[in-house]
Specification:
This protein is of the alpha+beta class. 46% of the residues lie in helices and 14% in strands. The strands form five sheets. It has a three-stranded antiparallel beta sheet with strand order 1-3-2. Strands 4-5 form a two-stranded antiparallel ribbon. It has a two-stranded antiparallel ribbon with strand order 6-7. A hairpin with a 7-residue loop joins strand 10 (230-232) and strand 11 (240-242). The longest helix is centred in the middle third of the chain and has 14 residues, at 101-114.
Length: 278
């Protein structure tokens, strides 16, 4: 009588040494490692300082996190090893920045998740008033002003949805950007080529609506700062405010921009140290 095939396999298993049957321990998910890094209060403050896309020295990051330079160096080494930060040498000095836009977006998403049940209350107080009005997030304009700007670009037909995702600059948009001092034809060509990361919508941390992100958004903010259409609020690394020159330059895109009134310098509010989104 022929033995059943399963019987042979079962017998082999029964006689095999225990070590052969035991499965190897599962590797720790990379997500757990990254989450543990961000969960540390000092490291989260350091990451948040860099959310505007700027460079900072180890000393500046240590001061932001209220820790000693030696402790900051240890934290920075861990963040570099995890790929959350990048380091650039400028002469004899080293400066740190977020590794890329994906890291910034992950931090923004985490901030929104942590405030799902307290969003309205968190943004109702004076401590975040300046941030909510306008702020810099990894090189582009966020907050009410950023959301309004994207709305104006779409309403005026300067931007259209791209079939491959993101936005494409229209002929009208090319002319409008030219008037702002940007190379409108070049941005029209670049967005039409299908590069989604050139111009796309990014969910705003405070407004829960999209503002413009991508390299076009970064060029717009850089131009706005250069021309003093917006300026940084006193005592804040990220909060911005629209100036009279900005209200004039963007009058066609932001008919309601006059409601974004500038505060007096003494009224600028400090930023919270919690993980901050875009």
């Amino acid at each position: 009588m022929t033995a059943a095939p399963f019987a042979t396999a079962a017998s082999a298993t029964a006689t095999a040494p225990p070590s052969a049957c035991a499965s190897a321990p599962a590797a720790e998910p990379r997500l757990a490692r990254v989450a543990a890094l961000v969960a540390d209060a000092s490291r989260s403050r350091m990451l948040c300082l860099l959310l505007d896309g700027s460079l900072a020295s180890a000393g500046e990051l240590a001061a932001a996190a209220s820790i000693t330079p030696a402790t900051a160096s240890a934290h920075l080494a861990k963040l570099l090893d995890a790929g959350l930060l990048a380091c650039e040498s400028r002469g004899r000095h080293r400066y740190y920045r977020l590794a890329d836009a994906e890291v910034a977006h992950a931090l923004e998403a985490l901030a929104m998740v942590t405030e799902r049940s307290s969003h309205d209350r968190a943004w109702a107080g004076p401590a975040r008033a300046g941030l909510r009005e306008a702020r810099c997030c990894y090189g582009h304009l966020a907050g009410r002003l950023g959301v309004a700007l994207l709305g104006g670009l779409l309403a005026r037909g300067w931007l259209h949805d791209h079939a491959a995702g993101g936005f494409v600059v229209s002929a009208a948009g090319a002319q409008g950007f030219d008037a702002m001092g940007l190379d409108g034809a070049d941005w029209q060509r670049r967005t039409a080529s299908g590069g989604r990361r050139i111009a796309y919508g990014c969910l705003d941390w405070s407004e829960r609506r999209d503002h413009l992100a991508g390299s076009l958004a970064s060029a717009l903010l850089a131009r706005a700062l250069e021309q003093k259409w917006v300026r940084r609020r006193q005592g804040s690394g990220r909060a911005l405010q629209c100036t009279p020159a900005g209200r004039l330059a963007w009058r066609e895109l932001l008919p309601a921009v006059g409601t974004h009134e500038s505060r007096k310098p003494g009224e600028d509010e400090a930023e919270p140290h919690a993980v901050r989104g875009c």
